[in-house]
Amino acid sequence: MTPAMMAMMLFAAAVVASAPTPPNILLIVADDLGWGDLGCYGNEIINTPHLDALADRGVRMTDFYAGAPMCSPSRTALLTGRQAQRAGIYDWIPPGSYLNLRANHRAFPELLKRQGMQTALSGKWHLNGGMELGQTDPSHFGFDDWFAVQFNDQHLNPEGFFRNGKPVDVEGYSCQIVADDAIDWLHNRRTARQPFFQMVTFQEPHEVVMSPPRLADKYSEYEGTKPLYYSNVEHLDEATGRIIDALDELKLSDNTLVIFTSDHGPAQHTPNGYFRNSHGSTGPFRGYKRWLLEGGLRVPGIFVWPGQIPAGKTSSTPPDSVTSSLLWSDWPEAGCRIT
């Protein structure tokens, strides 16, 4: 599978699909979420009912891959459909860096916008050195409306958020702040009858992990900082569920392609280091974030599109060979391994 396939699938789904009108597209990306962190991927500890239910509504891919094992390169590959090295993004971009995704690199939201779709982003950007530095931002890559932060290492009362180029102060936990904005856009800021592409990029469960005590207490039987991490994934699940509920409430679900994934694998736990709160699972695979082994690149991939993608299915075929099947609903004819 090429790292570009995630972006190519999104673009193809919008402009080539056989539906009478282009579907809406909702892409949700977690940060440092492991392949084995969700119940629907075999986790028996962390409570993820909303994402498990989402997987039941569509296809859960077992062999889905990120474009790189680090944040900024992975997001570059996702947006541009190209190897991140071609854009000069080799590693994560620290705050204050001169590095940023240059405007001459085309991103798939621009292509969707040309097809008449309205576009919005809520969440982590991490493709520049800071929103305040005058570098490229989401508006340079096709997003009409955006609420984003370059990078922030705290989940409670995060700093550094900008709305369409202007700084804003926020309070609360990051995943719920991002979900609030995404839901508000769906309800109040989009044009009701125009198809849309909405990208939601959570910061959870990236360090520094901060979780509500009401959730962390549920995992108090586990040692060390595991309750913080486990509850952080559950908090992410809650926020995702709220967005899906908003789609259902607005009666948008039937014509919306929903995709949930992670930017790469989980960070390796370092008891006395920066990743001391990270306890992500790679399932049976070796490696972690920053590694080129399966654990660093294989990520959850949930695809839901009622009437176009079959419900309650699992696919072990990498996405580059099932793209047409996602669009034309001919999974068996395409020879895909679906159970």
The CATH architecture: 3-Layer(aba) Sandwich
The coarse silhouette is globular
Which fold name is given in CATH as the topology?
Answer: Alkaline Phosphatase, subunit A
Largest sheet: 10 strands, mixed
**Percent range for helical residues?**
25-40%
C-alpha Rg (nearest Å): 18 Å
Give the N-to-C terminal Cα separation: 21 Å
What is the CATH class name? Alpha Beta
User: Strand content of the residues, in percent?
Assistant: 15-25%
Number of domains: 1
Strand order of the largest sheet: 6-5-4-3-7-1-8-9-2-10
Mean pLDDT: 89
Concise synopsis of the structure shown:
The protein is an alpha/beta fold.
Give an overview in words.
The chain is of the alpha/beta class. The chain has one domain: Alkaline Phosphatase, subunit A (3-Layer(aba) Sandwich). The chain contains nine helices and ten strands. The chain has helices spanning 5-15, 49-56, 71-80, 108-114, 174-189, 213-216, 226-249, 294-297, 323-328, and strands at residues 24-30, 59-65, 118-124, 145-149, 161-163, 166-167, 196-201, 256-262, 298-304, 313-315. It has a ten-stranded mixed sheet with strand order 6-5-4-3-7-1-8-9-2-10, with helices on both faces. A hairpin with a 2-residue loop joins β5 (161-163) and β6. α1 (5-15) packs parallel to α4 (108-114) and α5 runs parallel beside α7. The longest helix has 24 residues, at 226-249. The protein is globular, with a radius of gyration of 18 Å. 53% of the residues are buried. The model is unreliable at 1-5, 11-17 and 321-339 (pLDDT under 50).
